[in-house]
Amino acid sequence: MNPLLSHLQPYPFERLRQLFAGVTPPAALSPISLGMGEPRHPTPQFIKDAISANLGGLANYPATAGELRLREAFSAWLSRRYDLAVDAGTQVLPVNGSREALFAFAQTMIDPSRGQPVVVCPNPFYQIYEGAAVLAGATPHYAPSDPARNFAVDWDSVPDAVWQRTQLLFVCSPGNPTGAVMPLSEWQKLFELSDRHGFAIASDECYSEIYFRDEPPLGGLQAAARLGRNDFKNLVSFTSLSKRSNVPGLRSGFVAGDAALIKAFLLYRTYHGSAMGPVVQAASIAAWGDEQHVVENRTLYRKKFAQVTPLLAGVMEVSLPDAGFYLWAKVPEALGLTDTEFARALLAQYNVTVLPGSYLAREAQGSNPGAQRVRMALVADTEECVEAALRIVQFIQSHTA
Fold first, then answer.
1. How many CA atoms lie within 13 A of 164 on its CB side?
2. Which has the closest alpha carbon to 288: 126, 101, 99, 86?
3. CA–CA separation, 51 vs 68, rounded Å?
4. What structural domains does the chain harbor?
5. Measured torsion, CA atoms of residues 116, 120, 124, 128, in degrees rounded to the nearest 10
6. pLDDT interval class at 400 (50, 70, 90)
7. Which of 52, 143, 250, 313 has the fewest CB atoms inside 10 Å of its own CB, making it the most exposed?
C-alpha cells in the first residue's frame, strides 16, 4: 500500500457527514443544500443532442491528445475569450474535468528525488491541491491570506527558503471559496518568482465564466500575454465545462499553456489512461463553440445573487464576490458559535446545509483562515436559494434577539 495515502486529510464532505451525524432536521421544512458546488441549472439541450448524435463513437478508442477539431475548439475559444493565439497542436490538451487534471499535473511535475519538494497553494483552498502534492511526494505549503483584502494571498510572506524548494504553485482565480480574482500585478509577482526559482504554475480557472462585474475575469494565460510572456513559460491553465455549461457529469475540460509542460503532461496521460471518449469530445466541441448558453447561465446567477446577497448581508458579513457561485460569509460573533456549530445548528433547526469554512483551509501560521466563515453554494434555482437565505436570516435573528 502506498504509505503516502495515510497522509491524506478527510475530504470536506466526509467531515460534513460526520459533523451532521445524529442530526434530525425538522421534517416540516424541505431540505436545501448550499453545501456542495455542483451546478444544478439545466444542461443545454444542444449539448444533449450532440451526445445522442454521436453515440457511434462508443465503438472507438480515443486518442489521449483528442481529435484535432476538439483542440481547435479550445484554441478558438481562448482566442474569443482572451484574445490569445494558442497552438492547437502543441499548447492544449483535453482533460476529464479540471479536478482530475489538477491532480495528474502534480504527478507529472514533481520530482520527489530533488531535495524535499514543496507545492505552494492558497489557504483557504481546493483540497485537491493538497492531496495532489502529498501523493506526488511533495510537502504542501499554505500561503497565508488577508481577510481584510477579500482573502487575497500574501505571497510576500512565503519565506525564500520555501520558494527555493517549490516545484509547483497552485493558484485559483476566480477563487474557491472567496470568488476573488487575481489582478495583473499579482500575476507579475508570481511570474517573477517562477522565473527566479524555476517552479511551474497551475492556474485553476474553472469559475471564469460566472462573474458579476462588467469586465470578465483576467485569466493566467491572458496575464502572461499582457506581460509579454507569449510562450506561457512554466504556466498551464485549467478550465472546465462543468460550471460554464452546467455539465458536471460530462467530466470535460482542457489545459493550455507552456508547450514543453503540455508535452510532458501528454506523456503522463498516455500511460495513465486519461483519454476523453469520442462522445464527450463531440459534446465538448458543441459546448465550447456556443456562448449564448453561457450568457444565459451567467444571467441566472446574477439575478440569484442580486436577491440572496442583500438578504444575508442584513444579518451577517457577506458581499457579492468578483466571480464564482459561492458566498463566503462570516458567522456573526453575537451567536457565540464556531463555524461548525453554526452549520450543525442551522441544519438541525432549519434544514439548510452550508459548508464550514474551516473545512476548506488548514491551520497554518498560527490560525485557520477559514474559521468562523461558511461557504454557501448558490447552485439551486433562485426560489430555493431565496428560501434558504430567509431561513438563515430567521436562524440568526432567533439567536440574537
1. 4
2. 86
3. 18
4. 3-42+293-400 (3.90.1150.10), 56-290 (3.40.640.10)
5. -70
6. confident
7. 52
